[in-house]
Amino acid sequence: MLPFKTPFVAKYIYPRLLWKVKTTEKVIYLTFDDGPIPNLTEWVLDVLQEYGAKATFFCVGENVLRNRSIYNRVLAEGHKVGNHTQHHINGKRSKAEAYLADVLACDEALDTDKSNSSLFRPPYGRLTNAQRKALLKNKTIVMWDVLTQDYDQTIDPSIILRKSIAATSKGSIVVFHDNVKAEANLKAVLPAYLRHFEKAGYRFEAL
């Protein structure tokens, strides 16, 4: 099992990547990776609306092209979007030229002039040094402070909820996934997570 809270050493080695927002306010930055997809992304939007929460959706370009109306709803409801590559590819298994071309294709799918986004998150958190250096020229690379591991179907939702809450603090960037693999855990955890921090006086904002 991966750690729910990002180890300090990762932040120390890669200080130019955004791991957490420095703030003294009770703010949490929810992020959702891999969508948009029918039904589940729409469910997420409904839940966020119920709690008055804003979030950042790191979208896969091919999913945006398939589900343009859902993507447009994300923007229309005041959420932010970011690039998660066109085909959800692993940077460590890709040559820089091919990887950067895939990122550019996702930019086009996101219509970045419309979305006004320079945010990028690498699938699996995996990048080569060459890819990272090239992307930092015009992107903010957003990593995370809390990885909920909602995609891991072997972890009980109650454990995901408890450990995610314990790992979260002011300014945390929290990763959930709006994909099929994560659906059962996400539906069990997200409303309870929002409810817990709403009661604790936190608000949820987009990056």
Automatic annotation (TrEMBL):
UniProt cross-references to InterPro entries, sorted A to Z: Glyco_hydro/deAcase_b/a-brl, NODB_dom, Polysacc_deacetylase_ArnD
Cross-referenced Pfam families: Polysacc_deac_1
GO CC, alphabetical: membrane
Gene Ontology annotations of biological process type: carbohydrate metabolic process
Domain of life: Bacteria
Gene3D superfamilies associated with the record: Glycoside hydrolase/deacetylase
Molecular functions (GO terms): hydrolase activity, acting on carbon-nitrogen (but not peptide) bonds; metal ion binding
UniProt entry keywords in alphabetical sequence: Hydrolase, Metal-binding
Segments forming domain NodB homology: 26-205
PANTHER family xrefs: CHITIN DEACETYLASE 1-RELATED (PTHR10587:SF133), GLYCOSYL TRANSFERASE-RELATED (PTHR10587)
Name this polypeptide is given: Polysaccharide deacetylase
Protein species of origin: Roseivirga spongicola
Lineage: Bacteria, Pseudomonadati, Bacteroidota, Cytophagia, Cytophagales
